[in-house]
TrEMBL record:
The lineage of its organism: Eukaryota, Viridiplantae, Streptophyta, Embryophyta, Tracheophyta. InterPro entries: NUDIX_hydrolase-like_dom_sf, NUDIX_hydrolase_dom, Peptidase_M49. The keyword Hydrolase applies. Residues 39-181 form the Nudix hydrolase domain. Keywords: Hydrolase, Metal-binding. Pfam families: NUDIX (PF00293), Peptidase_M49 (PF03571). PANTHER family: DIPEPTIDYL PEPTIDASE III-RELATED, ZN-DEPENDENT HYDROLASE. The keyword Hydrolase applies. This is Nudix hydrolase 3. One of its GO terms (cellular component) is cytoplasm. It comes from the Eukaryota. One of its GO terms (molecular function) is dipeptidyl-peptidase activity.
Amino acid sequence: MADHMNGQAIQEEYFDVLTKTGEKTGITKPRRDVHRDGDYHRAVHVWIVVESTQEVLLQRRSDCKDSWPGVWDISSAGHISAGDSSLVSARRELHEELGILLPKDAFELLFVFLQESILNDGKFINNEFNDVYLVTVVDPIPLEAFTLQESEVSAVKYIPVEEYRCLLAKEDPQCVPYDVNGKYGQIFEILSKRYKQNAEARALTLQKQLNRYARVSLEAELTGFSSADKEALTLVVKAARIIDQIFFLQVWYSNPSLRDWLELHADESQLNKLKWIYYLVNKSPWSSLDENEAFLTTADSAVMLLPEATKPVAGWKGVEYRTSFPVVKPPGANFYPPDMDKLEFELWKNSLPEDKKKEATGFFNVIKRKSERILDELLSPAQQSGSSDDHDLYIVPYSEEYKAFLTKASDLLHKAGDLTSSSSLKKLLHSKAEAFLSNEYYDSDIAWMELDSKLDITIGPYETYEDTIFGYKATFEAFIGVRDDEGTSQLKLFGDNLKVLEKNLPMDNVYKSEDVIAAPIRVVRLIYNAGDVKGPQTVAFNLPNDERIVKDRGTSMVMLNVSEAKFNLILQPIADICITEEQRKYVDFDSFFTHTICHECCHGIGPHTITLPNGQKSTVRLELQDLHSALEEAKADIVGLWALRFLVNENLLPNTLIKSMYVSFLAGCFRSVRFGLEEAHGKAPSFCILTGHFLSFDKVENAVESLSREILTIQGRGDKDAAKVLLSKHSVMSQPLKSALEKLEAVKVPVDILPDFPIANEILRKSV
């Protein structure tokens, strides 16, 4: 079907028809029918704002447009064609209408705005969800640099942002109308707030945020290490630094450039220094302790120069723009296209053969767009290879996505493996180095579980907390330390009893596993950590998360030497404020530490690989998706308490532990919930505080068993709806909880620790 404009036939555009709430219906219709019938559809709006002059670029719409011909409009706008994505459409519209080609990191999604209007005596009905993007350029792009699409744009000009707001407010007939007093007007509020912030006030806020962390120096004895072992340690620390770089990229695609920019300008002012320090704590512009609220804006970000983004202009070096990031932390991090939603992913996944479905939901790959790659390569869609029915999404393994980093890290690990005298460490380092390049981590994770070395190393992609859209993709992390042999020997009891605990779990036998294996537990004095360690510091971890290995070999656990510092600096002061006076005597480090051990052990028991009601095999992670992490942490907390009580009943732990166990755990909940209810480890403890039973010893045991049964059964059934109900019910900020947290804030009890690593820092200093 074709329309005719100015005597030329053009292919008619089709749109995805949406519901009134913006979801796709699965129906596509021609453009003119959509506007005739008033169907809801989606479009993109792009604002180019000049930082130095506080101006916005406007375009005058072509006289042949079917809506608002010949009047001034925002920089660029256009419909999203059927099957196309938002960000690619925004980039393409800017290129087609104005002749400016920018990378995706120039586009900041501000908000989505529903525009509902009727024009042309009711013949043109516009019910449009607009994705509003901001492009921030440092200086004006010369008007002669633009290449205007005559059928869409007749002229462009700059106008002060405030002047444009006034024109819209008085409904100037020469401007396309936007309700600046409604939701669309928030773009002016965003820009005003962004560029009128007081530097002194910002510095004070950042200092307060930093003061929530208590600095702690973590050291370990290297006595007994040979010179070869120390050289191997140096190489592994260097590899861990590379792991850090991968994690920065996994969080968000412009995160590395933001990091480099902040470091470069850190010495220019006190504010810049505080930005840099707090950024290093969070490893992103989003504050971990503030429900991931942004403490930076795109105005703080890196400036990039693109000499060839437009046609050349004599004496002009090219477009300088700010690399952007959204105010709201993206749920898919940098594992998926930023404009991909769950429905698009599910439709694509379901079209794949079984082996590719498993790959799509696997730990060790990212999902990308072909249309985005085409724009990146400066190619037109007509040059795209592949069949016409190819889906836009495709899979890229980590070994390819992070090849430059992983090749260097692999080389360092191989060299370290050649040096070490420990056969198990040698095996781990070589197998992990190979896994970095092959993307096959099974053998290297088995080698990690079998590690028996004084130098203890965990390195690779493991946790899935950053992927809050599905919980599928693993982030890279590294923990390097010295094994505490005495502490390790004292914890054998817990790992050895996992089978007994699984057999007696408070859930139906059908959900229990016969294959639980005793879990080795290692106590490690930390020398260095890197990668996915941001904000609150990891106390312990139970790995791997790969269900194949959990089923075949179980898991292993590592306890880190940060627990005592957290207890002394944070938990004890919390108990003094939040625990009733008569029960404070029960709060002690041994109980806190013992529950931490049981928490990690309980990650290794309970449902993992499950059978769904229809007989299909699956995993809890795949079924619960984005809810898996929070429910799994809640399980480890609550079932951890149940397990401690069980071990006491079996005379494996002293009866005197019971009261101190419950009260210390309650104090620990107040500690963890301060991480924020958006964080998995903060969401889980809110279950316990809200039950109200944990100060009543005669009720707590039944409460623990009942909640354990409910959580385990939800996991065993893979029941996402039930998980959502349970989390919604418990993961809220109650008034008593809010009051307690305000008391802790008032007396400035630290929220967590910020470790210094003198040994690793000296290694890195010498290697520069």
